[in-house]
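Notes to self after the call with IL:
- keep both proteins in one doc
- input above output, always
- annotate only the second one for now

Protein 1:
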Amino acid sequence: MLVQEPNDLRFQVHPQAKFDVRAAVLLVHAGQLLATVNSASGIALVPSGIALVPGGAVKFGETAAEAAAREIHEELKLNVVPQLVGIVESFWQQPERTYQQLIMVHRVTLTDAQKAGLVWQEGLEGEWLPFAKAARVLQPRSLAQFLTSGDAIRHLVDHHTE
């Protein structure tokens, strides 16, 4: 279940179709990715065997980098300056709804001190996954292509099912 907050760039195109603009943040440390793997609240629904990365809807008037930094602070009480590494156009279907997302992908390499100081928002849980495992369970899978550094911002299109 996705939460619609004021000014979120989330749009119900018609009763069976939804579009949104999302900032996602790949938090990496020593060859591992911090992934949201479970949720005890209604904030996010993470199916078993699927890993998501911290992030959320970009708000009207907010840059993707501002959204990424805000989401990381809200979810993990961490102040960072995320670097834009790519854009993913993500398309998927669930039994009664079709989704399309424009995902602004950011990456932050955490220091040991930043990793040790992470505090999850109530109801959210995460796990450090080795890059190889993250590549198998991330949703959308194309996010794995941004785990390592690159010189250029990349654009990917991802069609998948959930």
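Protein 2 (the one to annotate):
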Amino acid sequence: MAKPWQIFEKQLIDANSYYRRKGYGCIDKVPNDMKTIRVGGQMISVPSGKTGCDFLGVYRGHAVAIEAKSTDNKTSFEINVHNKPRIAPHQIEFLKDFEKSGGKSFICVKFSKVNKCYLLPIDKYSQIEQDALKAERKSIPIASFSGHLVNERGYILDYLQEVE
């Protein structure tokens, strides 16, 4: 059975295919750097490098970079998971640098248990995260994402409809 993050990633890939078919844009999944190692008698793939984001492309004439995250939590988005930032500092830096270069950068967050998805510009996400950290919170309440809800168009998660 597919994990919630895999289902979410598939939804984004399907939306990107829809955007391409309609001529709205061309957005692709950024391949993760992986290497294969032997553990015991089995071969497994493990990350070997860092990527700046999950998806890159062009939508309606705008260069876009998207980092996608999902959570099973119904009420908040965890800032850290297993004592590591949920969104790594190098990813935030890449997305901000992408914006400085003229592109548009976003964090796309899916709350799987309540089936809600939000798309936030990187600066908005960074501000929300900093506010939560200043308040000594370990997570960002779902209410902080209000105003950035993504609509579903049939079976398509139309996550870039607000990009103009």
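Annotation: The chain is about 25% helix and 35% strand. The mean pLDDT is 90.
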